[in-house]
């Protein structure tokens, strides 16, 4: 528990800062700040952190990036994480581009749930946002549906005039495939130009837009996974839509249950705060697990009460380097 009384039992682990897509809100254009390979945590080092964290009460673990599936050892990592005492579930956030071939091996390895980013269905809009082909992602989503994960969710970052017009097609797609769709507010984690009045699209406005054509029935008991979304069922369309008001929701941080481990081995208590603690050096200097435990406890003590996206946040590190 942290000093606010929040139970922090969810660790999001970035396994790489590299990605096979180029979303401007995640990676600045022309970004070249990749970590050197030796600075990236190895699978053994990640597993050591997972073992210690699970021993301290962390229960839920998510692999993310960059794009986690550009790293070849992810199915093996999942298998070993799942077998770690105390681990209740291992999930993955992915852009879906490699899921067509990896969904089945990941399911066999014991991965329980998957979140796939899908900002648009229109191929041109999708390409404009990500630089990639939506066809491969849709094949990945189909493969993930067939693989039989406990849960598969879609994540859409809302951007005015960029994918605003994709909202209804995405809702229809989610409804047809019976997949929860989560609408996420754009966070200022790439460059200062990301969060401008022109492209910021608050979740309240998305709610209003949807309620013009359908009735939104609150689903207060819907807790699909470990995240902060507030869910509604669309009466006519049937879709389950979650809203993540990361920037505008006044009580957003009160239920926060997570910390992050970056691909280069820094523990980040809060996505929207620059503080990080260097775990990699300690991992490599000392064979005892006490150093890991102490650093995780220190990170817990330093977890801020609130993110500072609305204050003087400057993106020192882009989302792709922090891990989404
Ligand atoms: N590549 C994987 C993916 O696409 O899910 C995992 C990493 S990505 C950073 C994780 C999530 O963060 C994605 O859903 C992505 O859309 C979201 N994300 C990245 N940058 C963001 C930003 N500036 N604001 C809001 N969400 C963002």
Walkthrough of the structure:
- There is one protein chain.
- By secondary structure, this protein is an alpha/beta fold.
- Helices cover 30% and strands 17% of the residues.
- It has ten helices and twelve strands.
- The protein has a twelve-stranded mixed β-sheet with strand order 7-8-9-6-5-4-3-2-1-10-11-12.
- Helix 2 packs parallel to helix 3 (99-109) and helix 3 runs parallel beside helix 5.
- The longest helix is centred in the first third of the chain and has 14 residues, at 43-56.
- It starts with 9 loop residues before the first strand and ends with a helix.
- S-adenosylmethionine binds at residues 19, 25-26, 64-65, 67, 93-95, 117, 155, 157, 184, 186-187, 189-190, 194, 319, 324.
- The site of S-adenosylmethionine has 20 residues, from strand 3 and strand 5.
Short note summarizing the structure:
The chain has 324 residues and is an alpha/beta fold. It has helices at 43-56, 74-82, 99-109, 123-130, 134-147, 167-176, 203-211, 279-285, 290-301, 319-322, and strands spanning 10-14, 60-64, 89-94, 113-117, 151-158, 181-185, 216-218, 230-234, 240-244, 258-261, 266-268, 277-278. Strand 8 (230-234) and strand 9 form a beta hairpin.
